Every structure is written in structure tokens, then in C-alpha cells.
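Predict both folds.
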Amino acid sequence: MAIGAMSGAMYDSECYAQLSLHRWMLRDGIRNESYRQALIHAVKPGDAVLDMGAGTGVLSIFAAQAGAAEVFAVERTSIAKFATKLIAENGCTDRIKVMQTDLEDANLPRKVDVIVSEWMGGLGVDENMLAPLVMARDRHLAPGGRIVPAAVTAVVAPAFVEEIAYQQNLWRSKPHGIDMSSIAASAADEAYMSQARILAEDLRAKPQAMWTHVAMTTSLQEADSPFVAKLQFVVDNPGIVSALAAWFTADMGDGTTLTNAVGAPDTHWGRMLLPLTAPVEVNEGDVINAEVHCLPSVPGSCEFSWTVQITGQATQK
């Protein structure tokens, strides 16, 4: 069985000017504490720190609390005004400089010892922030400097996701006597983030890594090129497959990881879901071939395409 789909842009970078979105992230205690501890490990007294895409400035405050002498909080959207307020209210104005500008236009007075950025989308690279991180590294990081997080790996597995299976079956059931099968087809063209509850027992095969990016060594060409993974899964947990579920695992550089993986404590990311056109029953030993493409698009956005082939099933698009 072959199921193919293509999504449009995943994110509107201007949405990051809205405090409502940042409240959602700031409520994520797992995310925040992971970054706080990583910065305690990475920042040495007297260091200069670049907070790339600083948002409300909370990571900049963490860096200052960890001992940084100077923090450059670079944020392109108007949320920088709120960051200035939050930084002042936390007594850090003398050490944190908020710069409302594009990263490419930021002129820092010195090289920095640490770059920190919460650049990850649902599977890491999907917010198209890896290339700016690499450019910031090459332009602003001093020799021997550190980057938080140190590396990010994207992971995927075939899964039963109840909300997708329910919706796809609904569109094919002629609700109210209306043929809505075209909605099912279009729904399979949309990659999206979801807080849907997915359990380890909902995965039909062992998760596999799609790609890993090490912050200190990834080249700009690699960061700005399509990300492609071709994987083969062997079903070890028979049942229904309705999507590919994807997530990331970030090496925070202090011996810990931050992840939105299935089975891990919930975070604001949820999981990235790549729907199939219809739920499919799979048996133990079935082979599932999956190909995922993530194409960097405009700032803050990527486009996705994916194909799934299940042996012994009729071809379907």
C-alpha cells in the first residue's frame, strides 16, 4: 500500500509575536527546567551569551542567573518589547541587552561563549531555524564556545493515532448522506502538531531516527537542504496504522535530554503527525517502508511530503 501526501507551510513566524503562544511554551515546565539546567552547566562566570530567537527572554534570564556577564537577546518580532519588561522585572537589565532585529542584521559587540536557542519544532527542524543557528555559530561563536542544545535527532514510527483514524473513517462514512471522501484525501495532505495521547503500545514498530544534527558541526549547506529519510520498519505490534508519528530528542549538553517522544512526559510540542489516507491493519512481520521529506521553506516554515508502503496491501494514493 502506498500513501503519499504533501503539506504546506507549517508555521507563520509572525505568530511568535503573540504572547498567547509564549504563555503556552512558558507553561511547559519540562522544557523550561531542561534549558535552565543546561545553561547552568554551559555558562561560566563572565561568559557572553547569545539567545537566538529570544521570545519572552526567559532563556536569557536563565543565562544571566547562571553567571553570564552579557546576554544578547535577539528577537525579530514585537514580543521583544515584552521580553524587555520581563527582564527588567527580574533585575537583569544590566546584563541582558534585548535586540529587536533579524539575526542576520544583529551586530554583536563581541564573540559569545554560548549560543542558546529553543529552535525545535515537533520533530526538530520543521520550524526552519537550523540554518539561522548555523549562521549564528559561524558568525558569533568564539573558539571553544558551546551551543545549547548540542544535538537534535528526529525520530519516527508507524502508529495508531485514534483521532486520525476516527476522522478518516468519518469522512468516508457519508455523514448526513453526503460524500465527504475528498475531505479524507485532503486531510492526508496535512502534517500537523497534535497533543493527541499516543501510548507506547500504539506504536506498530520500533521507532527509528530520521536524521541527527550536531550544532557544532552541521554545515550551512546541510542545514538549508531538504531533509530526507528512507526507513524500513518490521511490525512487531500488530494492529491498525493511521499515521507516522514523529518527535525529537535533544542532547542538552549536560548529560540530559529533552524530548517529546511517545512515552515521555507531556510537553507543549506534542507530536508531529503525518496521516495515512486510510487506517490500515498490519500483521506481525509486515514490512513498512516509509520515506519522509522535510523541505525548508520561508523563515519559520517547512513543507513536508511522505510516502508509506506496506507489503501485501493494494496500492492507494
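Second protein follows, with its predicted C-alpha cells after the sequence.
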Amino acid sequence: MLATGQSMVAVFNKLMEKGKPKEIHLAVVIAAPEGIAYLEKHLPENCHLWVASLDEKLNDKDYIIPGLGDAGDLAYGNKL
């Protein structure tokens, strides 16, 4: 899932310390428009994003709405 995009940009920046590939393809099952906008702003043009499903938005806790329900939120304990 791509919510805010901040984790993906952090990983990208760390990987670039090891070398710079000609192209990068990022694939996500579900994304929020805010995350896509963040990636467009912070990643170079040789990055290509593939999104299976675009949801409406993020809520005030940065959860994707409507998202996939509580599955991810509850995987590590009670919901925050």
C-alpha cells in the first residue's frame, strides 16, 4: 500500500547510496492520491509507479480511505 509515500522515498534514498540504476519500477496494490503526489515531487523521472487501485484519500491518521479495512492496522496489535 502507498499511503503518504514517505517510507518509499526513504528506502529509495538509502538504495541510491549503493548505486543509481537506469530505471526503477515501483508497484503497489493500492494507493492514495497524496502518496502519489509525494512520490512525484521527491523521486526522479526514471522512477515508474504502477498502481492497481487508486483510493479516495488519506484520513487524519494517514490511513487510506476506504483502504483494505483493518487487516494491516490490526496485524501488530490493537488499532491506534
